[in-house]
Amino acid sequence: MAKVFLMIDGRQVESEPGKTILEICRDNGIDIPTMCHLDGLTDVGACRLCLVEVEGVSKLLPACTTRIQANQVIHTQTDKLKKYRRMITELFFAERNHICAVCVSNGHCELQELGYKVGMNHVHFHYLNQKCDLDASHPWYVMDHNRCILCTRCVRVCAEVEGAHHWNVMNRGVQARVISDFNTPWGESITCTSCSKCVEVCPTGALWSKQTLQGKMEKHPEKIAELMEKRKMSL
Amino acid sequence: MKPKRNLDREFSRTDPCVKLVIDKIEKENYRPDALIEILHVAQNAYGYLPMEVLSFIAKELRLPPSRVYATVTFYHLFSLKPRGDHTCLVCTGTACYVKGAQAILEELENKFHLKPGEVTCDKKLGLRTARCIEGCGLAPVVVVDEEVLSNVKPEEINDKVLAKMGVKV
How many CB pairs lie under 8 A apart between chains A and B? Predict the structure, then answer.
C-alpha cells in the first residue's frame, strides 16, 4: 500500500493511510495523554485530552478519532495544548470526589498518573461537590459514582467485548451517570455476566473488587487488547 | 424472520394503551432503531413512560435495558413521571430570562407550590421549563397546554393558568 508522509512535531513520519493520528504518534514514540481511549475498544473522543493542532484547521482535533491525511502538519505538544490538557485534568478532579488518600486505586490510578504527567499542582476550579451514590449490591464488585469520570470505557467494553451491554450513560451534562439496566442496582441486574471486564478497564477507582484495601486495586486494561487480538486470530 | 413473541399476555390484555405500543412495534417490524418512534407512541398513550412499558419495549425490540433507559433520560421530551392533565411550560432562554421569567416561576411557585419538573398532588398541573422555544420576540413566553402566551406579566400568569385549567377565578 502507498505510504503517506506527514510532519508531526517537526519530524517527518511515514505511515499507511487510514490510521488515526493517535496511532501514528504512539507508533513513533510521541506521547499524547488519553483517558477514554483504550486499545481494543472503539474510540469516542469523549475526554478531549488527545486534542492536537493541525495546520490549516482552525479548531483542535481529537487525535483518537481523526484519520491522517497526506502532508498534514501536526503539533502535539504546544503550550496551548499543554494548558488545555492541564485544564481538562483539573475539570476531572473538580467534577466529583477524587480524594486519592482514601481510594482503593491510589498508586495504580490512571487519573492520578495523568495529574502528575500534565503537571497539575492544584485545581483552579471550584469543586462541584456533587452527591453521588455508591452501588455495592453486586456480590463481588462495587460501583462508586463519586470516582467516575464518564470515560465510558466500561460501557464500551461491556457492549463490544463481552456483548452483555449492561452499562450505559443516563441523563446529560453534569447529571450524567453510568447506569446498569434500568438504573436498577447492579446486584439485581439481568444482563450482567459478572465477567469483571468493566472493573479491569476502569481508569480510576470507580469500579473495584470488594474486600480490596486502600491502594491495593491493581487493574489490567491491556488485557482487552490482548483479548481482541486473540479473537481476530481464532477467526 | 420475525423474532419470537415473548410478551406477557396478561399485561397486554388489561391495558388498551399497550395495544397502541404493540401495533407500533409491529408496524416498525421490530427494528431496534425505531426505538424513539415507539417511545413517542408510548408516551402519547400513557402521558409518561412507566417502567414496565420500557421493559416491555426493550424485550420486544431485543434492546439492552440500559440503552432504552439512556435514550429516555437523554431527551427531555420523554418523562418517567406522570405529567399532570395540564402543563405549564415557562421559557427560561436568554431573552425570557432577561424579561423576567424568574419572577413568573416564583409567582407560580407561590400559588401552586410547584418547582420546575414537578406535578401538583392532584395531578392537575405540571410545571416545566425550556431553554428556548424560539419565540424571543414575544418574551417572556409561557406555554399553557398548547397555547403560547406572550409578553406575560408575573401578576397575570396565575389567572391565565387557572382559566386554562377550567377553574373559575
Answer: 41
Contacts with A164 from chain B: Cβ below 8 Å = 64
| Pick from A167, A171, A172: CB nearest B66 | A167
Condensed to tens digits (0 to 9), the pLDDT of residues B88-138 reads 889 998 999 999 899 999 999 998 888 888 888 888 888 888 888 888 898
Top CATH class of A4-77 equals: alpha beta
B141 CB contacts (<8 Å, ≥6 apart)? Answer: B91, B96, B133, B135, B148, B149, B150, B152
Instruction: List pLDDT tens digits, range B46-98.
Output: 888 988 899 999 999 999 999 999 999 999 888 888 877 888 889 998 999 99
Min distance A25 CA to chain B CA atoms (Å): 34
* Interchain contact, A182 vs B65, CB within 8 Å: yes
Question: What number does CATH give the domain A102-226?
Answer: 3.30.70.20
What is the ipTM for the molecules in this complex?
A: 0.88
Stretch 70-129 of chain B: residues touching chain A, C-beta under 8 Å: 70, 73-74
- Contact (CB, 8 A) for A33 and A84: no
Q: What is the pTM of this model?
A: 0.81
Nearest to A209 by CA among A119, A123, A114, A142: A142
Residue ranges of chain A assigned to CATH 3.10.20.740? 4-77
Asked if residues A209 and A195 have their Cβ atoms less than 8 Å apart, the reply is no
- Please give the residue of chain B at the shortest CA–CA distance from A167: B66
